[in-house]
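In this supplementary section we document a worked example of the pipeline. Step one takes a protein sequence of length 385 as its only input; no multiple sequence alignment statistics are reported here. Step two produces a three-dimensional model, which step three serialises into structure tokens for compact storage. The input and output of this example are shown verbatim.
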Amino acid sequence: MKDTKNYGFGTKAIHAGQEPDPTTGAIMTPIYQTSTYTQASPGNHKGYAYARGKNPTRSALEKCIAELEGAKYGLCFSSGMGATDAVVKLLRPGDEVITGDDLYGGTFRMFTKVFANFGIKFLFIDMKDVNNIKKHITDKTKMIWLETPTNPTMQIIDIEACAKLAKEHNIICAVDNTFASPYLQNPLALGADIVMHSVTKYLGGHSDVIMGALCMSNDELYNQLAFIHNSCGATPGPMDSFLVLRGIKTLHIRMERHCSNGRKVAEFLKGHPKIDKLYWPGFPDSEGYSIAKKQMKDFGGMISFSLKGNSQEEAFKIASSMKVFSLAESLGGVESLINHPASMTHASIPKEERDKAGVVQSLLRLSVGIEDIDDLIADLKQALS
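The serialised model returned by step three reads:
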């Protein structure tokens, strides 16, 4: 295996974890479409026994994602929620988790509707001020789970401050890095213990695969999570792994375009007469700008905005009249998407909780793709007219 640790991000994205096929010399990692592997004698195999546990295509992808995050280990799952599920399974009944009041709806649903039933308590708080996190820590607190930027109001959480606080109290610090991708942000380098990705999004990048990933460098955490990974079976197949390996090869190029397009879209929307609040961390007057500038390489292609008058009907009309932006859930693909969080990705969160976090009825979330920027601006202009 070639050593790519000292290479730049783009070189790692193309080469990390991958070698030409030893049999044919194929430059692309083969799709090892097999459920089992022969053994010379019982227990005498080449590291692969049954494909739920390990598959060579998936192993190559796990090594690649780990290197992009600066991690010692990577584990891929059949979805981002499968990866999140594995992290929460590190906990025991009676344990407490501190997390944000602006959180992906699927994560909120899992925490409150699944794991709360097993005696794990979740505190949903404002995490922008680390002192607010500190005052909620008790001897039962075992994990801090954070997103940054958050979904969908783009709150910026100080990863380094959270990780330092977690270490002081012997708490696991886990970061959902989906919105930033490893290209823009590396939480492990800032002290976090675990990084989670919905690989479906920017890492895959083409809206054609569902997958999740965890990265970590701590041996004990890896052994625990690898055991859960194999035992509970939320593992992806080789075809999906191949697709993500292919997608990652252009991650750095795509992210540059997502960021540049995102900036131009945000600048167009800023001050628009129909818009009440605009959420994008790249403006110097944005809340969290200084932290984002410190911990991110750029500000990403995710933008949300609410409308004056807070009319859901008007939001629906705008979302449905887009021609280049597609009305759909998900994000991070090459194509631009518009989403109505309150009725789509965050519908599982009670309305009073959504309103408190700023996920109001008129809020629309944009995943700015890599199309020609003039076409994206023209589309927004006609939809908002």
